[in-house]
Amino acid sequence: MQFIVGKKVAVLDDVLKGIIVSINDQTIGIEDSDGMVYQYHQNELVIIEDDQYQLSKFSDINNSLLHEKLEETTSKKSSFIKDKNEVILEVDLHINQLIKSTKGMDNFDILTLQLNTAKRKIEYAISKRISKIIFIHGVGEGVLKSELHYLFGRYPVRFYDASYKKYGLGATEVYVYQNPKS
């Protein structure tokens, strides 16, 4: 790997690419796309070949697992439901729906995350003028439900148990009062 003025290089431990503009012993000057010149030791740089972009094309990768994953069309379920021309935001507050792992978290951390999520969703609904939110909190011991009710008291909302038929006992429907546009 020989460094020559005019070659494209990338910095190993930084998100920076550029063209070599000077070489002084072990120090190489590179110019980025904004015209800024940086000095790096040659061990911190790697040359970018013109055809390296070809490596990322899927046709060059013969990995059956990758092709299998690409063929699986998993459509992300929308959080929005349209019911009789009314947009309803549905928020599942079960912790496994919010984060991948609760490792290192105690009950207080989990509850705080769930309440912060609910707070963000209420504020989002108010800002986007969404009139109904369904919070799915589960039955459990009722701690999250009672904390949610306390949180709802801080906002211009009315809340009640959601449809038993659709959600069972563990959901609360929130109606957000909207101010008319001024």
Q: What descriptors fit this protein?
A:
five-stranded antiparallel β-sheet, 5 helices, alpha+beta, five-stranded mixed β-sheet, single chain, 182 residues, Ribosomal Protein S8, Chain: A, domain 1, 2 domains, SH3 type barrels
Radius of gyration, whole Å: 27 Å
Level of helix content? Answer: 25-40%
Low-confidence runs of at least 5 consecutive residues? 51-60
Question: How large is the share of residues in beta strands?
Answer: 25-35%
- By DSSP, the count of extended strands is 10
Total helices: the number is 5
CATH architecture verdict of the largest domain: 2-Layer Sandwich
CATH topology of the largest domain: Ribosomal Protein S8, Chain: A, domain 1
Order of helices and strands: EEEEEHEEHHEHEHE
Structure, explained:
This protein has two domains: 1-52, SH3 type barrels (Roll); 80-176, Ribosomal Protein S8, Chain: A, domain 1 (2-Layer Sandwich). 14% of the residues are buried. With 182 residues, it is an alpha+beta fold. The protein contains five helices and ten strands. The chain has helices spanning 64-71, 95-98, 107-128, 143-152, 164-167, and strands at residues 8-11, 17-24, 27-31, 37-41, 45-47, 80-83, 86-92, 132-136, 157-161, 171-176.
